[in-house]
Amino acid sequence: MKKVHDHFSHQSESYKKYRPSYPTELYSEILRFVNTKENCWDCGTGNGQVALKLSKYFAHVYATDISQNQLDSAVKEKNIIYKKVRAEQSGFEDNQFDLITVAQAIHWFDFEAFQREILRVAKNEAVLAVWGYGLCKITPPIDEQINIFYKETIGSYWNVERKHIDLSYETIPFNFKQINEDREMIMAHYWDLNQLKGYLKTWSSVKNFMKAHNGYNPIPELINSLRNEWNENEKKEIRFPVFLKVGRIEK
Q1: Which three-class secondary structure state does DSSP give residue 203?
Q2: What is the pLDDT of residues 186-235, one digit of tens each?
Q3: Which of 115, 154, 201, 215 could form a disulfide with 205 if both were Cys (CB 3.0 to 4.6 A apart)?
Q4: Nearest Cα to 104, choosing from 20, 40, 177?
Q5: Topology of the domain comprising 9-137+160-190+241-249
Q6: How far apart are CA 118 and CA 18, in angstroms?
């Protein structure tokens, strides 16, 4: 089985504070396919953003992650059960779940082993929803500078799994009957420069870059270069393309 790597424990608070939240439209699209709302598994839950949303609809939400730091900082609700396990070896019961969700995380998994685990723990006719989001868009001049930073400054420091994000998960096996249409959604927020800076700090590639350069952080240089296009306290719309696959699990 693929070796597990924890890339996010060291920045769990920043991850919770600066990572964008998913649009209501995404949840509505997923939930319309779910017949029974008893048990849901949010796999790779991170700070529990998705688990919290799903707790409004399901009797029980089981949320797992390999990072105890992330789980410790997650939002708590009576019907959310957090558990530190890897996705491919959850320890859950057979035929337990009506919905399994994976948000911006499946690219880290061992695909074949995770698929076997899905088939084991999902009920017949349950739903699997997998999604992620790509590089943000703001304005053409700002986008150009962020693209250079993304591809050139830290480009070689991304883990190999990042390629799946860049290709909208088209390279990840999805061996279930897809029941939604492939269409891009937009996750939009209004951020100032400080919020953008905080978000960039959560990138695993920045951590890898700093490790290779004696702790030098390349983000302040980028932020300074953006000041010609972005006033200090100005809020700009920042848009992330969201891609989603929803599948029916048939046994």
Answers
A1: coil
A2: 999 999 999 999 999 999 999 999 999 999 999 999 999 999 999 988 99
A3: 154
A4: 20
A5: Rossmann fold (3.40.50)
A6: 30
